[in-house]
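Moderator note: this is an archived Q&A kept for reference. The question asked for a predicted structure of one protein chain; the sequence and the answer are reproduced below.
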Amino acid sequence: MKTLRTLYRYELRKLLSRRPAWIVAILLAAITIHTALPSHGAGSTFSVTDRSGQTVERVLSGAEQRAALAEGERRISGQPMDEAFFRNLRAACAGNGQYELREHWDQVCWFYLVDNSYLGPYSLLAYEWNLDPATTTAEQFYQARQETIRAQMGPLSPDEQSFWTDMEAKVEKPFVYRYGGWYPEFLHNVYGLSSLLPLLAAVCLCGVFSDERRVRTESLLFSCRQSRLPLFLAKLLAGLTCALAASLGILAFCVLPLVFSHGAEGFQAPLQLWESASSLPLTVGRAVLLMMGLLVLYALACGALSMLLSVATKNTLAALLGPVLLMILQARLGLPGQAAEYLPNQLFNGTAVFRSFQLVSFPGTFLTVLQVAPVLYAVLGAGLLALCWLCWRRWAVQG
């Protein structure tokens, strides 16, 4: 055990001393922060006209618009989305009687300039759910949602439909409207994060095994008594440590700007506010934690692939390009519809995975995509690491 600790520290220092990896890591961290930070555009002009013909006009920057939206959401946070809620929303769309609100844009301007209390629900209904906030009742909203869910469950077997019916019964209704904070924004950034992590893992780990061939120390290395299993485990643990630290670092660089700009609250907001067709009884905070866990497992699997290519080809460039090329070409793999949902480009496509009704049969029950995906990526990563050991042992015998 003491020998393993010594070798692990040595291999970890080797990985941490790679200057190209630090340069790429800093560059990707900067890209992540830039993407997460809210855009500071030129702003938009909002205007409303009162009954006497007087026009109130004001230019609001992107930051001011976000502040107005957050302020209004916090003001009504905690209200159940029942008929009283929708009645207040319809009344807000009509204004307070002082202004002419004839069109959709007039209503938007009124929310921003006069009373932003129901700006959040208005935006969700108009832009996310494609409903008219000025006329929609609670019954119409929940009925439209159920029709969408029934349409998605149409191709499923009766047992699968029964599973989702039971799952839907666990979703609290009426929904409780809550300010979502930074959590919905993080879900929108998940796809970008899934594109950065394979590159980061590859850059950090592409030389973990192949450096021995590059510096021509393999003959000396394999002549040592501890050159097989202890050294392999040390390299493996050091590589996984770097991949884990790098992925957690990227997640932190994404989350911190979002928390700074949107606030820390919002964990208990229902996921259905942003993905109304989902029948998963999740809060948006739990949904974010699930996606974070999947991203970390994906990063570790990419790191395992890079290490496998490093030991199998003994070539740093191949180990660097392998995970990146696989990420680029994944859309052309031609997998069947259900299997394709586990590919990163679909699994990390915003909130799409939360409205997937695909199930995997398991003795006595069914498993959702979100339950199968972590096991799949963990098994895939473990399999790649096992192949690393076989390649390393063969190399050691030949060496």
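Archived answer notes: The chain has a mean pLDDT of 88.
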